[in-house]
Design a protein that fits this description.
The complex is a heterodimer. By secondary structure, chain A is an alpha+beta fold. In chain A, about 30% of the residues lie in helices and about 25% in strands. In chain B, the strands form 3 sheets. Chain B has a 6-stranded mixed beta sheet with strand order 4-12-11-6-9-8. A 4-stranded antiparallel beta sheet of chain B has the order 3-5-10-7, with no helix packed on it. In chain B, strands 1-2 form a two-stranded antiparallel ribbon. The longest helix of chain B is centred in the middle third of the chain and has 35 residues, at about 275-305. The chains are: A alpha+beta, B alpha+beta.
């Protein structure tokens, strides 16, 4: 898995599979019991002899209770374990990337009610450029495929959050602070960016385009 | 007397301060007046400046337009300081033009579109008149609002600068198709609310009339209603909570339906973005604070004293105050909506947006209203903790309390501990908005993330506060319906305690994308994953309770089984968020919306519905109609699934929440990956239709409750065969609730045990067994 890649895809498949397993067990159990243990017509058997004002005899089985604490715990530990590794791909350590000889490029994104300001800094036009998309009239950030980008985002007014839908990457742009979004665009084309943190009237129109070329 | 004068003077000063304070507006540059024409030139509107808007050929603006035709408009101003500049009127003019309908397109380089409004460009600053193309809309009256600045050209804001504004309107000729009636979302909402209120009043009057049709008169009605409004009886206050909670549930529902109409097709304009923002804010606040919490309080008020065998709550008058703070708070929260100036910052009220100058003044009232609810919740917390700790019937130890009482205890403890943080945040935000303090003003050194931390430190326990009582209700209903003792009573209690503790250390998962440190992110991920364990134990215990039982199918049983399905699904979808790599994608999308509606509607509300069908006979002494109940369950369940299940898919596609519109891949967006696929529009329409099915199904229950109250069968003391004390007293219970305090008999053998360190700490030394 690459830095800033769509890490969620692989995780999602694993989580989805386990959700189905848990769902099938729970709902199978529920449906079975709802039909098998229903009261027969006209009968009303008081199984545990419940009486008003009498705390009933405990109905418990410690081994079973421990079982369905421990088995989910194992599943949870496994799911946590597989979720840890991608964290260092979503927010990699900038120093490590430098050491391994892979370079990354820093691009500034500033949110303002209700548009995005892209700042390519000193980067070459081939690596990073800005423009206006001719079809939609939206601000466009033009980057190169398969390069690692670190978008440093901040805000001029309220909290925004640039959302690179294709790569499932977002991070709040907070006034007075910098946060980082790592994206490695691995496809060419035009990609949608919108604002994920409610920022006022034109929140829905706070969109931009990431154009990726070879 | 002297102290009184001081108090009156103090309150007088406070009132005066409050009257003047909202007129001021905190800005990074200091305090400025709100009614400015433009952000760069202040002062009041000037009579010297006269704006104009005509057709570009010089003729007057027509009274009617032909739809689809593009009109070339000319506008500008005469008079003011700009006139006095004779040569090269550099930087002397500015404007802002808003058209309510149709599309404005800049015709030359002198004008530009900014955030949907037309304004001058930098070169356009040197003009006093401009032109623009306006494409007429399909139908409806188009309103223009023009603001012009006439300035002296010294390139800085000064008091010499003047401005003026004017409005124009053009009606539709009807040339391009039929004129469609224009629905204003706020009007619909207002009508809905008035309707709810009228229905409520009629219902109250009718119930009174039915009690004694012969002697119906104001003289008898007035004391009867006064008796209700001033009651301190836990049952009556519970009923009041019920009525309030259900009415606000309907109001919040009307708002949700209007938002769904807006989202039913892309680019819809049923609501303006402004209205949409208010509606989702108020919808969130109303549903959590004014619908779910009062409904829970209704059951808590009714059932906790009955279940522990107490005659009333520990502090009945405090209880009445807790309730009456709610209508006051509700009025404040909703008051902004009526003039179109309601809070528009989202129920989370993220800073610095919630203290930003451009948000509606209603936000201030919304903050004040929530402060009232904080006070109310704190009082409720004191009351219930005291009641449950001290007023249990003889024979009832902590681990012999019914599970619903346990759930209320855990829930009020959580609320009691977490809500002060919210109160602090609210006060800070309120002061920021009114007297320009700088808690959340970044340019003054404030920290917007402080709010997020305070809010979610409260907000996460809060969502458990509303779900845990539903656990309690389902535990009671399932055990009683299966005719069994609940499986693993103690592990149920411990699981709830564990949820109550973990609630406080997981809140950071709401902020995983806010630039937290990686270590904290990891901790929050781990803690959040752990929540699944006690919740899992509860679900498996409920399932095991049914094992070997004799399940009697009643409406409340169906709702509880339905709860098990929807809550489990909500729990499973909740597991996707703590995995951070997935959360960066799912955060703030419709996947989150689907998840929290699965746990809040499918969890809390279904649990509460189950409680309504379960305890209604006890509360009113009348049985509900089972046929209508089952009908309600079936329709609501189908509508609910159609409403919230597809939202998961929309979220995975990347549909972001709190957007009043969305972009479909097509037309000019056809090449743009990441916009929604075309079928997303169909799913949105499907969701809207399902929302109406779900919304209307609730009316079946309301009808059932009212009609059963009048015509329902008389209920016995214990219609379902439960064991706890509420089934001991008559239906409805007398006041005080027990003629004689009952004693609990426990069938389990308890070995003699030495008091442990905790008991020694809690129990005074001179305490004698049985002295209570």
């Amino acid at each position: 898995m690459a830095v800033g890649g769509a890490a969620y895809n692989e995780l999602f498949v694993i989580f989805w599979d386990w959700s189905v397993v848990v769902g099938v067990i729970t709902f199978g159990w529920l449906i079975h019991h709802s039909f098998v243990y229903r009261a027969k017509d006209g009968e009303n058997v008081n199984v545990d002899d419940l009486q008003v004002g009498v705390f009933p005899k405990h109905n418990h089985n410690l081994k079973l209770e421990i079982t369905w604490f421990v088995i989910p715990a194992i599943l949870i530990i496994y799911l946590t374990w597989i979720s840890i590794a991608p964290v260092s791909e979503v927010w990699p350590d900038p120093d490590k990337i430098g050491v391994e000889g892979v370079d990354y490029y820093e691009v500034g994104i500033t949110g303002q009610q209700w548009f995005w300001i892209f700042d390519c800094g000193e980067l070459d036009a081939e690596l990073c450029d800005t423009g206006i998309d001719s079809d939609t009239g939206l601000t466009t950030l033009i980057v190169k495929k398969d390069m690692i980008y670190r978008f440093n985002t901040t805000s001029n007014d309220v909290i925004h959050s640039p959302y690179f839908v294709q790569w499932g990457a977002k991070e709040d742009s907070i006034p007075g602070q910098y946060t980082a979004i790592w994206v490695t665009p691995d496809l060419t084309g035009k990609f949608f960016i919108d604002c994920a943190e409610f920022c006022g009237d034109d929140h829905a129109y706070m969109t931009a385009i990431l154009e990726v070329h070879n | 007397m002297k102290a009184n004068y001081r108090t009156i003077a103090f309150i007088g000063i406070l009132l005066a301060a409050l009257m003047f304070a909202p007129a001021l507006d905190a800005r990074p540059t200091g305090i400025a007046n709100v009614d400015t024409g433009c952000s760069c030139h202040s002062g009041t509107a000037s009579n010297d400046v006269s704006p104009f808007l005509t057709l570009a050929n010089g003729s007057e603006l027509p009274d009617t337009y032909v739809s689809g035709v593009t009109y070339n408009l000319a506008f500008g101003f005469t008079g003011g300081p700009a006139e006095d500049v004779v040569v090269d009127r550099i930087n002397t003019g500015g404007f802002n033009l808003i058209a309510s309908k149709g599309t404005l397109t800049p015709a030359d380089e002198f004008t530009q579109l900014m955030a949907g409004e037309l304004t001058h460009s930098e070169v356009g600053n040197d003009q006093q008149s401009w032109t623009v193309d306006w494409a007429a809309p399909a139908s409806g009256k188009a309103d223009f609002r023009l603001m012009v600045n006439s300035v002296n050209g010294d390139n800085q804001a000064s008091s010499d600068d003047q401005w003026a504004s004017a409005s124009y309107s053009v009606a539709s000729l009807g040339g391009g198709g039929e004129e469609l009636p224009d629905v204003n979302g706020l009007t619909v909402l207002f009508t809905g609310m008035v309707l709810v209120f009228i229905l409520l009043s009629i219902a109250v009057a009718y119930i009174f009339y039915r009690q004694n049709p012969e002697s119906f008169s104001w003289e008898t009605f007035a004391p009867w209603i006064a008796d209700w409004l001033t009651s301190t009886d836990h049952k009556r206050i519970g009923t009041l909570y019920f009525i309030a909670g259900l009415s606000f549930f309907l109001i919040g529902g009307i708002m949700a339906l209007m938002m769904r109409i807006q989202l039913s097709s892309p680019g819809n304009d049923f609501l303006t973005k402004d209205e949409y923002n208010q509606f989702f804010t108020i919808h969130g606040t109303v549903m959590i604070f004014l619908a779910a919490m009062p409904l829970i309080n209704a059951f808590a008020n009714w059932m906790v004293p009955l279940q522990i065998g107490a005659k009333d709550l520990a502090f009945p008058r405090l209880n009445a105050m807790s309730f009456w703070l709610q209508p006051v708070g509700a009025t404040l929260i909703l008051s902004g909506v009526f003039n179109g100036m309601g809070a528009d910052v989202g129920w989370t009220g993220y800073q610095p947006l919630a203290t930003w100058g451009s948000t509606h003044p209603g936000t201030t009232l919304w903050l004040a209203g929530q402060l009232m609810l904080v006070a109310s919740s704190t009082l409720t917390g004191i009351n219930f903790i005291a009641t449950i700790a001290t007023m249990r019937a003889p024979g009832m130890g902590w681990l012999q309390m019914p599970l619903f009482t346990w759930s209320i205890l855990i829930s009020v403890l959580m609320l009691f501990i977490s809500i002060p943080a919210f109160g602090v945040g609210l006060i800070q935000a309120y002061l920021d908005r009114t007297i320009a303090t700088g808690f959340y003003n970044t340019s003054a050194g404030g920290d917007p993330l402080l709010w997020s931390h305070l809010f979610w430190y409260f907000g996460h326990p809060e969502v458990y506060v509303v779900i845990v009582p539903a656990f309690g209700i389902v535990s009671e209903v399932l055990a009683t319906s299966a005719r069994r003792a609940i499986f693993g009573y103690k592990s149920m209690v411990y699981a709830m305690c564990a949820i109550g503790i973990v609630a406080f250390i997981v809140y950071g998962h709401h902020m995983l994308t806010s630039g937290m440190s990686p270590g904290l992110r990891f901790f929050m991920m781990l803690a959040t994953m752990v929540v699944a364990l006690p919740t899992g134990v509860k679900i498996f215990n409920w399932l095991k309770t049914m094992h070997g039982g004799s399940l009697v199918y009643r409406t409340h049983t169906l709702w509880s089984l339905g709860f098990l399905v929807t809550f489990t699904l909500g729990g499973i979808s909740g597991m996707f968020f703590p995995a951070i790599a997935m959360d960066t994608h799912l955060h703030e999308t419709y996947f989150v919306v689907a998840h929290f509606h699965y746990v809040l509607v499918g969890g809390t509300i279904f649990g509460l519905f189950s409680g309504i069908y379960y305890w209604y006979p006890k509360m009113t002494g009348r049985m509900l109609n089972e046929k209508l109940g089952v009908l309600h369950f079936l329709i609501a369940y189908i509508g609910y699934t159609g409403l919230f299940w597809p939202m998961h898919k929309l979220g995975l596609w990347g549909m972001t929440r709190r957007h009043h519109t969305y972009f479909i891949r097509g037309d000019e967006y056809k090449d743009i990956i990441g916009t929604l696929p075309p079928e997303a529009a169909d799913w949105n329409m499907f969701i809207t239709i399902s929302a109406f099915v779900f919304g209307l199904s609730t009316l079946i229950m309301v009808y059932n409750m009212i009609s059963s109250l009048i015509r329902g069968q008389k209920a016995p003391a214990d219609p379902w065969g439960g064991w706890s004390f509420e089934w001991l007293t008559s239906s409805p219970p007398p006041t005080p609730s027990f003629d004689e305090i009952p004693t609990l008999i426990d069938l389990n053998e308890h070995g003699e045990s030495e008091p442990n360190w905790l008991m020694r700490m809690m129990v005074p030394e001179d305490y004698e067994e049985g002295s209570k």
